[in-house]
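Quick one:
INPUT:
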């Protein structure tokens, strides 16, 4: 029998005509229902001020619901429950509250199908994705994009200027025959031309897909080779660690193998803009910059109106388990989710400036470019993602929301960097962190290095082009936890029998359809790939493949990593972070990971540690690790110093690759890795018997 679900209600106080939340440690403690004897009392790390709560977008949304006679709700918890119980009303309210632009209103909000993946959202509606991002800004002088690179180059675009640039880029695409439904691919760094090109393509009803220019030829072909692009947009190069890196030689190689490619546009970024460029890979080629600077081209956009589910993005799985899956995301789902997350969960308004440390090869790029829909400023950066110039940008642009990856926070800590002591970071109110688990000690470091701000650890993925678990500006942050489940998403944690569990490790699932799930997978006419990706573990329930814990006392979550990374050496499941959270605090450790070694039906834990300056792991270090693990089940059987870990091109440590290498399993797609050469180290450990037991 499945356990009953426990719900934590949040105290609210009504003040004058404004309802807002006051959440205090004492109140949380009084209401807490603690069901796990193994969990220590959660530490409240940050809590919102009364002023922040009163002026938050969530408070405004609650007022909107009340004034529109939709619902009267008295807490965030009540809002979350209501968003699940009245899903159609909730998502229509999100569309109305966020001023989503329709040329034709929907005839229905949700039509369920026989399968989870068959759900149809906002049927009958017509709209344009790009219009919803920049249509409001045609005549506005507010700053839309501020661009920096590691060399200190800086340029800006107002919303009016951006609108004109997009119109000119759309004219360029139309001139080579791009029409609704065509695929436009970007092999381009995170520069304004990337956003301009995406907006131009989607304004025409075309589909945008992109890779960052550090991808190998094989990695690009694994992706673009599946999607039949008609046009490719690239830059002449990019910058990384002080050097100019050429892009065109790579384009020359892979473009010759894209049979559908009809035209290439080159944005001048690292070189002066030429008036004419030679064809690449025997494909007609034009300088994009010439179009963007041509004042004779009008600045009107027609904004092709398309059905709500019309594709806007093709995204790719990481490719570590085979050829990357091509996930098609539709206009309505992407807009609804991004607007909801930006407005309600991140509290973004037109007065904000948001920077996310990303490349065009990661879904967070697509996510944060949607910030344009709020009227806020998007700060873009190209170059070494660990370069200090980013903090110069954050300081000068008065960035309010800073998004990064847990690996970057770890890098700063390992290198003893304290940005707040070098730069004025007082404008930052929120740090977003994703890519991997932000472990508790990094919460402490981030507060010390950046400031006493809300730290919103978030988790979701390319699959939903958004988050299942993320921040909430009106709730407290508990050290080491993700604050809240995403509004409108029936996020849960299941045990192996498909029962909801609390306060223990299980599978992260979603029990009901949501707007931003993929419209389809490419080359999957019967939906078999789609079904296999999410619905084989539990009948008609989305299983995300992450191990997680949902806490009954705080309502927060921990996401422990991929569930196939979960360790189970003695029948007790736990995530690698149980070990690495401790190990990474030891002096001299750059980073660590723990992976299951499987032999003859048994399992042991191998701990891999990267040391400063290639240091060694000696007996003293090993003894300390084992002694500090209070639970003997968590103690690693093997401990090795490693030269490096395999990382995907989006910067995620690939435990899957390590596990395959040490267990003699096939490594399906090395081209998905940024550093495939390190795999041989792990294979050698298996081959020389170092991991036998």
């Amino acid at each position: 029998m499945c356990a009953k679900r426990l719900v934590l209600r949040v105290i609210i106080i009504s003040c004058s005509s404004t309802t807002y939340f006051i959440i205090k440690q004492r109140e949380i403690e009084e209401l807490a229902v603690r069901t796990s004897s193994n969990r220590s009392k959660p530490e409240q790390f940050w809590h919102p001020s009364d002023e922040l709560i009163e002026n938050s977008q969530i408070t405004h949304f609650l007022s909107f619901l009340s004034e529109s006679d939709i619902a009267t709700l008295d807490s965030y918890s009540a809002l979350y429950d209501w968003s699940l119980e009245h899903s159609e009303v909730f998502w229509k309210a999100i569309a109305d509250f966020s001023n989503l632009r329709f040329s034709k209103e929907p005839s229905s909000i949700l039509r369920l199908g026989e399968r989870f993946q068959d759900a149809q959202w906002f049927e009958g509606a017509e709209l344009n994705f790009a219009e919803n991002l920049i249509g409001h800004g045609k005549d506005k002088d507010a700053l839309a994009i501020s661009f920096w690179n590691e060399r200190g180059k800086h340029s800006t675009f107002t919303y009016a200027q951006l609108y004109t640039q997009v119109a000119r880029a759309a004219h360029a695409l139309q001139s080579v025959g791009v029409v609704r439904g065509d695929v436009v691919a970007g092999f381009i760094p995170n520069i304004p031309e990337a956003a301009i090109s995406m907006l131009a393509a989607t304004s025409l009803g075309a589909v945008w897909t992109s890779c960052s220019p550090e991808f190998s030829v094989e990695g690009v072909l694994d992706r673009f080779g599946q999607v039949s692009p008609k046009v490719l947009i690239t830059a002449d190069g990019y910058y990384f660690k002080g050097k100019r890196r050429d892009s065109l030689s790579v384009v020359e190689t892979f473009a010759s193998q894209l049979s559908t490619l009809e035209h290439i546009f080159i944005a001048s970024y690292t070189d002066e803009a030429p008036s004419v460029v030679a064809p690449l890979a025997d494909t007609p080629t034009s300088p994009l910059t010439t179009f963007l600077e041509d004042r004779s081209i009008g600045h009107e956009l027609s904004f092709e109106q398309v059905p709500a589910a019309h594709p806007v993005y093709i995204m790719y799985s990481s490719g570590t388990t085979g050829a990357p899956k091509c996930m098609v995301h539709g206009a309505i789902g992407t807009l609804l989710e991004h607007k909801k997350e930006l407005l309600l969960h991140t509290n973004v308004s037109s007065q904000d400036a948001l920077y996310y440390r990303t490349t065009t090869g990661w879904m967070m790029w697509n996510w944060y470019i949607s910030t344009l829909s709020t009227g806020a400023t998007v700060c873009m950066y190209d170059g070494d993602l660990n370069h200090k110039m980013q903090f110069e940008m954050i300081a000068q642009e008065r960035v309010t929301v800073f998004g990064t990856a847990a690996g970057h926070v770890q890098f700063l800590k390992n290198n003893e960097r304290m940005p707040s002591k070098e730069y004025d970071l007082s404008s930052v109110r929120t740090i977003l962190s994703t890519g991997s688990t932000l472990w508790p000690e990094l919460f402490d470091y981030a507060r010390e290095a950046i400031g006493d701000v809300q730290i919103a650890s978030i988790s979701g993925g390319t699959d939903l082009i958004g988050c299942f678990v993320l921040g909430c500006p009106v709730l407290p942050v508990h050290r080491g936890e993700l604050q809240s489940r995403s509004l409108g998403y029936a996020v849960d944690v299941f045990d192996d029998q498909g029962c909801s569990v609390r306060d223990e490790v299980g599978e992260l699932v979603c029990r009901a359809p949501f707007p931003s799930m993929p419209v389809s997978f490419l080359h999957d006419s019967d939906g078999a790939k789609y079904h296999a990706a999410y619905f084989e573990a539990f009948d008609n329930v989305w299983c995300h493949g992450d191990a997680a814990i949902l806490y009954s006392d705080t309502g927060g979550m921990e996401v422990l990593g991929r569930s196939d990374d979960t360790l189970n050496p003695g029948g007790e499941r736990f995530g690698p972070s149980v070990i690495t959270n401790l190990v990474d605090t030891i002096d001299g450790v750059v980073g660590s990971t723990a992976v299951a070694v499987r032999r003859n039906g048994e399992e042991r834990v191998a701990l891999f540690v990267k040391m400063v300056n290639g240091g060694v792991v000696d007996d003293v270090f090993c003894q300390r690790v084992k002694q500090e693990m209070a639970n003997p089940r968590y103690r690693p059987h093997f401990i090795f110093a490693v030269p490096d870990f395999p990382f995907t091109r989006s910067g995620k440590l690939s435990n899957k690759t390590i596990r395959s290498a040490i267990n003699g399993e096939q490594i399906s797609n090395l081209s998905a890795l940024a550093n495939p050469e390190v795999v041989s180290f792990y294979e050698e450990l298996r081959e020389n018997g170092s991991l036998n037991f």
